Amino acid sequence: MNEGRGPLYRLYITRLRRALRADAVPHHVAMMIDGNRRWARQLGYSSAAHGHRAGAAKMREFLTWCDDVGVRVVSLYLLSHDNLAKRDSRELHDLLEIIAELAERVSGERDWRIKHVGRAAGLPPDLARVLASAEDRTKANTGMHVNLAVGYGGRSEIVDAVRSIIAAHHVGGGSLEELAESLTPEQIGEHLYTGGLPDPDLVIRTSGEQRLSDFLLWQSAHSEFYFVEALGPDLREVDFLRAIRDYVTRDRRFGG
Question: Residues 132-171, buried b or exposed e (16+ Cβ, 10 A)?
Answer without folding.
Answer: eebbeebeeeeebbbbbbbbbbbebbeebbeebbeeebee
